[in-house]
Amino acid sequence: MQREPVHLSEKELILAADGELSVRRRAKVNAHLEACWSCRERMRVIETTIAEFVRARNAELNRQLPPAAGPRALLRARLSEAAAATPGSSFWQFPFPAARVGQLAAGVAFVGIVLVVLTVFQSTVSAEGPKPRLGITPGETRPITVEEVCFYQRAEVVSRDIPNDMRQKVFAAYGIKPAQADQFEVDYLITPDLGGTESIRNLWPQPYSVRWNAHVKDKLEQRLHELVCGHQLDLQTAQRDIAVDWIGAYKKYLGENPSH
Amino acid sequence: MPIRSPIEDEVVALFEEFRAPVIRYMLAFGLPIADAEELAQEVFLSLFEHLRRGKSRANLQGWIFRVAHNSALKCRLQLRRHSDRFVYEPVLSMAAADPAPGPEETLAISQWQQRLLSVVRALPEQDQFCLALRAEGLRYREISEVLDISLGSVAASLEKSLSRLMRAEQT
Ligand SMILES: [Zn+2]
């Protein structure tokens, strides 16, 4: 069993400051920061340095910037000229050759949101506890490569706390009354570590107190991450399996009985 | 008189939001401010075409910086090739070169801040780009797309730059 290092690395502190840690890793880092004054002081130095650098950079660059009004008016005029011309006719000469624009456009088109398309079925409470309703929460992913998923050994992908108004929307969609809300955690169906988004199509209320609960799902997420990064499972299959039936996926990848 | 399309308004709104960040970023290439201003116009005209053709709206901020990055590189190349008026001079060094900054501007930048800026000037260009994009609010994933480098390289670059800046503070 490998021991955790005593203090946080500089890299981890910077990633934490920039909000680039996974939910799981961030929780550990926060717990350490609460406990450890030394690391908190190191974090303060990082934040102060960033603040001073930004202040210096802005002071230096902003005074060179002419006021926006002139350039804005010029752009307005150019836009109406361009709007009058047929799309794609003339003004591509500078700064991009047409081939480059095509390439760029293709790249950008790829960055659309990829939806995991699933059949709609409804299922609320079964013997194993409530499940996500795929009509409301089909699972939605952003474009992400395996390299990004495996960026760090354990899933260090951007994710944030789910904002309160989003939580309320999820509860409303599932017909959960405010009084019952504290029995549920709003959780990602496809974890951000595997490319899941923070949209209502990827969030569902997970009950705390059942056999198949959030801790069990965490285990599955960790396992899928290992498999994807070990090239034993492709990312799309992992995303689909966890979205369609995460309990089934747990049984498939980890065995019949949940371990907590 | 043609009716103004909603896309024109949208592009102007994005211009309001991103003109300054884009120009500040382009100044990291050592471009003269007038060229950076003109390139910013081109970027937003391209954005207009992009939106008018119904292309993806996902992450327009990333799109804008990617196009800005490519045009700045190209413009710098052209300036170097076709003109002797262009002397490469990273803009953060202009403070030192500027003969007459106003008194409040001189006061606005502390010695420590001057030292931080000189540390940045000494960084390899790629690290300066990374830092500038982060300073303009891009996330690691977006930076990796603009610079076409891996996420790991973005994190490593920022870590390196920040530890240099922190050491500058301590000396
Ligand atoms: Zn510590």
**Count of separate DSSP helical elements of chain B:** 9
For the largest interface, the chains and their residue counts are: A-B, 58 and 73 residues
The helix/strand order of chain A is HHHHHEEEEHHEEHHH
Tell me the CATH architecture of the largest domain in chain B.
Orthogonal Bundle
CATH topology of the largest domain in chain B, what is it called? Rna Polymerase Sigma Factor, Chain: A
User: Which consecutive residue ranges of chain A, at least 5 long each, have pLDDT under 50?
Assistant: 88-128, 155-159
- H/E series of chain B: HHHHHHHHH
Shape of chain A: extended
What is the spatial order of strands in the main beta sheet of chain A?
A: 1-4
The number of domains of chain A: 2
Rg value of chain A: 24 Å
Bound chemical compounds: zinc ion
Which class best fits the helix and strand makeup of chain A?
Answer: mainly alpha
How would you describe the overall organization of this protein?
The complex is a heterodimer of chains A (260) and B (171). Chain A has 260 residues and is mainly alpha-helical. Chain A folds into two domains: 10-62, no CATH class; 69-254, no CATH class. Helices cover 48% and strands 7% of the residues of chain A. Chain A has helices at residues 10-17, 23-35, 37-62, 69-84, 98-110, 146-149, 164-173, 214-229, 235-244, 246-254, and strands at 114-115, 125-126, 129-130, 140-141, 184-188, 203-207. In chain A, the strands form three sheets. Chain A has a two-stranded antiparallel sheet with strand order 1-4. In chain A, strand 2 and strand 3 form a beta hairpin. In chain A, helix 1 packs across helix 3, helix 2 crosses helix 3 and helix 9 (235-244) packs across helix 10. By secondary structure, chain B is mostly helical. Chain B folds into two domains: 1-91, Rna Polymerase Sigma Factor, Chain: A, CATH 1.10.1740; 94-171, Arc Repressor Mutant, subunit A (Orthogonal Bundle). Chain B is 73% helix and 0% strand. Chain B has nine helices and no strands. Chain B has helices spanning 6-27, 33-52, 60-82, 94-97, 103-108, 111-121, 125-135, 140-147, 151-170. In chain B, helix 3 (60-82) runs parallel beside helix 8 (140-147). Chain B is globular. Mean pLDDT of chain B is 85; it is low at 93-106. Chains A and B meet through helix 1, helix 3, helix 4 and helix 5 of A and helix 1, helix 2, helix 3, helix 6 and helix 7 of B. The structure holds zinc ion. Zinc ion binds at residues 7-8, 32, 36, 38-39 of chain A.
